[in-house]
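Submission checklist for the structure archive. All mandatory fields must be present; incomplete records are returned to the submitter.

[x] Identifier: Putative acetyltransferase
[x] Organism: Gordonia amarae NBRC 15530
[x] Residue count: 56
[x] Sequence attached
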Amino acid sequence: MVIGPRVWVGANSTIVPGVRIGEGAIVAAGSVVTKDVAPNTIVGGVPAKPIREIDA
């Protein structure tokens, strides 16, 4: 698992081994992240899916 800088991870989230979370991403509370997360993206759900991109 690699978590980039400026990443927010909500409470009770699960990130499986081998997943990369890009710089500036946000993981919503209670999410299960099973795939890589692109930089500056908000993800959420079970399994986590992109919700929207953040303007950098």
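[x] Structure attached
Curator remark: The first strand starts at residue 2 and ends at 3. The mean pLDDT is 97.
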